[in-house]
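User: Teach me something about this protein's shape.
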Amino acid sequence: MIQRTTDRDRHLDCVRMGDFFMIFAHATRMRIFCALQNGGKTVTRIAEESEISVSNASQHLRLMRDRGAVVSERQGQTVLYNIADPRFFAAANLIRDALDDLRRADELEVPHSCTLENEDDPDTLDNVSAADPITILT
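Assistant: First, the predicted structure itself:
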């Protein structure tokens, strides 16, 4: 996690990242993200590769552009969409690898958990804040 000097800064980072990650919480947008892995494409090409309608692709791309995940560039009458920052692919690969590791651990019946530091509080899940520290135990 990004180290910030104040709780307010950490909270704002969490809100901003949560808003950004919401983009990728939809399977169709993940397919669009994957379609853009090899460079900029038109909405028609993205729709074909993502197996969705052009209209649906346009709606998702607009949301992704508004949230900063993709950029668009006009070349004559053609508009090409691309991922805004190639580090997003590195982050996606890191998450995929972690999920693969967790799946393998489950297959091997290796215990793992994700707990909040104040897990003894019975209302923990009801009162979780984006600024609460999370400890991952594997």
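Now, about its shape. The chain is about 50% helix and 15% strand. The domain at 7-109 is CATH 1.10.10.10 (Arc Repressor Mutant, subunit A). If you'd like, I can walk through any region in more detail.
User: That's plenty for now, thanks!
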